[in-house]
Amino acid sequence: MTKPVPPAQKQGTTPKFKPTDAWSTLATAVNNSRNVGELLKKAELSDWDPRLEPMALLSDIGVCIECERPKGQKHTPACSVGKAETDPDADGKVTDDHTTDIIEAPGAWGLARTNSEGFTEYLGAVTTRQYTAVPIDTRASILTEIVKQAKAKFGPAGPLWNNTAAFATVKLPELIAVGKSDELEMRVVLINSLLPGRPSEIRFEAVRLASNTIQHFAADRLTLSSADDADARLTEASEALDSAVRHAAKVGEIASAMRAKKLTVAEFEKVCDQIWSKPADTANSSVRELYENRQGMLKIMFKGEVDQFAGIGGTRYGGLQAILTAIEHNVAARTDQTADDLKYRAEDVLFGRLGKLARTAVELLEVPAA
């Protein structure tokens, strides 16, 4: 997710850009760790200590919280609130700051955690005292079991959704072959949510290594138990590994069938127009220019004229990879984007509108079952 593919790039040369997949873009650690504890520590995900704390309201009661003089009148001589005023221009009168009181909110609880600097960070409101937030340190034993059984390696890990969740991944050792010239890597992604209403889950994601793009084939996921239960985690690890193997086989089947089917430039352009509508002649010039740049780059990728697409050009699979690359890496962007821009786009690819666009592309290009 970085610079655009240069239009002048020719097959057989080294491309000038090296994008990262969406999970790696969101990660605070992407290196291979020896164990899950090391991965979580590097990614700053361990020891969050998620907990419920009672909530309160800040209310303006109209009078000083100590001497009870109304706004605009002077504090009593003995009032500590008035004496604590540090503003050199203060006139000794009651102001808005002096009439704000903390009022208990019975039955309301807030979810908090300890951040990396040791301070309490508020994450969101929780309505019931009975809710227990399970930290990723606990659920990560699922990944430990998968690594042990499948000889997998740890992958990207980091926070999600303003620290209300976190993710950690493992990479299965066997790559998915697509024809004779392309490979996909299978990842098992643990998403640990701290807020009720958004369940924790295991996702199974294939990543194309040549272009570092998330593949949106045959969405599959496993919802995790909300309880802190060690036996449940062992069962979930076994189910996750079985599902990952099945999902990898399914992805390989679908991708290979697409790789074997030719696609003309005209057919590819028709698909692209269903993903990105052509702007009207009256549209802003920058919008029209973005569209034209993207269309030109899509054709270059589809024809296999850059290294990342050599060997798959002119096929349904090649067309899909061109579209997925354009969606995930914003290949038509004219300038480098900020880290925040890239992370926003990565979340959108994985969980939002851009992800829906990618799944639409799969539906349009997938080879119908016989």
Task: Spell out the blueprint of helices and strands.
Layout: H1 22-26, H2 36-42, E1 51-60, H3 80-83, E2 100-114, E3 120-126, H4 136-139, H5 141-150, E4 153-160, E5 165-171, E6 176-178, E7 182-193, E8 201-208, E9 213-215, E10 221-223, H6 230-259, H7 265-275, H8 285-302, H9 316-329, H10 339-351, H11 353-365
Antiparallel strand pairs: 1-2, 2-3, 4-5, 5-7, 6-7, 7-8, 8-9, 8-10
Pfam families: DUF932 (PF06067)
Region (Disordered): 1-20, 74-94
Biased composition (Basic and acidic residues): 84-94
Features:
370 residues; alpha+beta; 3 domains; 11 helices; 10 strands; 21% strand; globular; disordered N terminus; DUF932
Taking the sheet with the most strands, its summary is: 7 strands, antiparallel
Structural class: alpha+beta
Task: Give the total of domains.
Answer: 3
What is the global morphology? globular
**Rounded to an integer, what's the Rg over CA atoms?**
27 Å
Strand content: 15-25%
Low-confidence stretches: 1-17
Question: In DSSP terms, counting alpha (H) and pi (I) runs of 4 or more, how many helices?
Answer: 11
Topology as H/E string? HHEHEEHHEEEEEEEHHHHHH
Helix content: 25-40%
Distance between the termini: 36 Å
Mean pLDDT: 89
Region (Disordered): 1-20, 74-94
InterPro entries: DUF932
Pfam families: DUF932
Biased composition (Basic and acidic residues): 84-94
Q: How would you describe this structure to a colleague?
A:
The two termini are 36 Å apart. With 370 residues, the protein is of the alpha+beta class. Strands 4, 5, 6, 7, 8, 9 and 10 form a seven-stranded antiparallel sheet that branches. Strands 1-2-3 form a three-stranded antiparallel sheet, with no helix packed on it. Helix content is 35%, strand content 21%. The protein has helices at residues 22-26, 36-42, 80-83, 136-139, 141-150, 230-259, 265-275, 285-302, 316-329, 339-351, 353-365, and strands spanning 51-60, 100-114, 120-126, 153-160, 165-171, 176-178, 182-193, 201-208, 213-215, 221-223. It is built from eleven helices and ten strands. The radius of gyration is 27 Å and the shape is globular. It has three domains: 22-48 and 140-257, no CATH class; 51-126, no CATH class; 265-365, no CATH class. The relative contact order is 0.14. A hairpin with a 4-residue loop joins β4 (153-160) and β5. Pfam families: DUF932. Residues 1-20, 74-94 are annotated as: Disordered. Residues 84-94 have a biased composition (Basic and acidic residues).
